[in-house]
Fold:
Amino acid sequence: MNFEFSADQMQLKDIARKFLEKEESVKRARNVLEGEASYDEDLWSQIIEMGFTATAIPEEYGGLGLGYLELCVIAEELGRSLAPTPFSSSVYLASEAIINFGDESQKESFLPGLASGEKIGAFAHSETNTSPTEANISCSFSGGTLSGTKIAVADGDVANTFIVTANNGSGVSLYLVDGTADGIQIEPQTTLDPSRSHASITFSNTPATELKSEWSDVLSLLDRAAVLFSFEQLGGAEACMDMAKEYAMGRYAFGRSIASFQAIKHKLADMFIAVELARSNCYYGAWALSTDAPELPTAAATCRVSASQAFHECSKENIQTHGGMGFTWEFDCHLYYRRCRQLAANIGSQSIWKDKLIGSLERANQI
Amino acid sequence: MDFNDTPEEAKFRKEAYEWLASNAELKEGPKDSWRASSEEEGLNQVKVWQKKLHEGGWACLHWPKTYGGRESTPIERVIWGQEVSKFKVPGGYLEIGQGMAGPVMMMYATEEQKERYLPPLATGEEIWCQLFSEPAAGSDVAGIKTKAELDGDTWTINGQKVWTSGAHFSDYGILVTRSDPSAPKHKGLTFFFVDMKSPGIEVKPIKQISGGANFNEVYFTDVKIPDSQRLGAVGDGWKVSLTTLMNERLAVGDASGPDFEEAFSLARGQDLNGKLAIENDSVREKLADWYCQQSGLKYAKYRNISALSRGETPGPQSSITKIVSGNKLQEIANFGLDMLDSAGILRTDEEGAEQSMYQYGFYGAAGIRIAGGTDEILKNIISEQVLGMPQDMRADKGLPFNEIPTGNK
Structure:
């Protein structure tokens, strides 16, 4: 049995971690949070230079043609370091949509730019404060143009390539919009995690092309992205556990390190349990994604639920372990707490993914 | 990343399967298992099967061949476990002897003792038990009081042990005692092995909340043990005990009983308020949580096996198994009974009935969360040994054992 990342993949992970530490990615997330910029352009250009955006894009379209396992280990490190860049939108969602559902000309026009970072992609899906379904998506496509409004589009204000879900009269498909097209109105939106920018986007008779897809493909795109987002959540969860431990070890109260109190130790043990379950489930997701296994819907939902739970547990209990200091602006705890919420919301809630998980098991069992 | 065997592993798996196929019966389904009509019958069948295993070269896989083992690698043990689980073979009774007493004898007994006592453990001819816990020493197992006094080259033992599995059918036991009550708690202990037929040993079953009696109290009244049966130095009993406690935590492992599959299948067939239970959102949410826990444990185990397969030491992920599976079992059992609405309180003893599976889970989970290290002790172990956090402050540190507060006036 070889249910582990290879030595090369672990080395890539190590390179990514050291690079993001050296570049003080967490500090940069704080700068974006506090400043005016939507993302850290300097870090983004270095990430591009490292080749991370090109990881899973096939070589014939300007990518590195490595696999999804490589992308998973990078995602974990980006999550651990809160990297404030449009990586997830551009790579897990936009690039994936075009790789999987684009025709030859769409791939040739967009993938090289997404690989080289010249293009930044975003996925415009949500419309209201309820989960998008095939029935409730009102954004429409007809006569080669899109119309409708999308909200809470991660990186919507910095992207120049949009993947949009819209109803064409017979169902919902994915559409590809070039950011230079007419009829695109972008309004930045304030969020709980300003280290990642979001926007509402209104399309008014905007020229678009269809990615050959239907609603089940939208779900499949979300499944693929869920595995990669889960690795970001896993990295974030583990970072919180490490922070909580380090703080507890050094903080003295009642004449002793608070790390010697069982109330704190058991809290840390609970974090460890959540992280280990999430890690094991993420590996299952990575395996399913990288091998295109029929279990992907089950594996994706499993790792999504498990990693969301772990990050939630660890980010909130990290603040709790820090006590009052954890509630200050100065400490980094809130950066993770915010990012946890952002990642938990971005491709659908816990309840939706739990329901999907049981649904996929029901279907698997019927066959 | 894959789930495949290496060529050597595949060869070993094939060899194991072929031997099993010609010596045992395949299970009819994943939940089909061996059952004995009584404890006596079970013990007999286990002994017969163990003898067969030994003759075939499949006993105590990791032991040296000299003592009846196979000198297998850790990954081969795992593969054997996977293959044997496909067959309906007798089990139980021997784990404590082979998993805990055997290793401690191998480390501390004399060569003659090893030659005398280890082979009958491998062949299943002799059964051993472990005499550690006491009424006032459970989680704090180093707080045992059973007294050992040396006169010439004979020790006299007086005291009481508790939670001793299989003491009533065991031939020998490993025993930890207090030889110096004036030394600090961990310093005054001495370790022995003892003939369970020695005069002065009295075994009484403990009735559990399930009504069954798998454990015993064992009373020692002026029991004589020759000094030659001491394992480790006088006063070094704690160090010797740790060898077996580490093995115990690995041995207890996964909780057995209804798991996600059972709960899922129950929910898909059970009416709940005029609809199938599976259509109820609260039910779906619980099922999803259990699935994620079960899946997390399964793939954590695969990560362990992968480490073994590479010849590496597995990571600390196995330390979460018992906590997660014990709590999950308790919740699933409660759910299974809850599904029956008011009738969930009615007891059935019908063998193999779905309801009785949840009833046993309901009782059993309460015990699993305690046996072999409580949830709380395991969380201490995770935080101290895995995360490197400091020990809690101890009120008994450095005190002579007989001056430690006990709560008794």
Summary: Chain B touches chain A through 51 residues (CB under 8 Å).
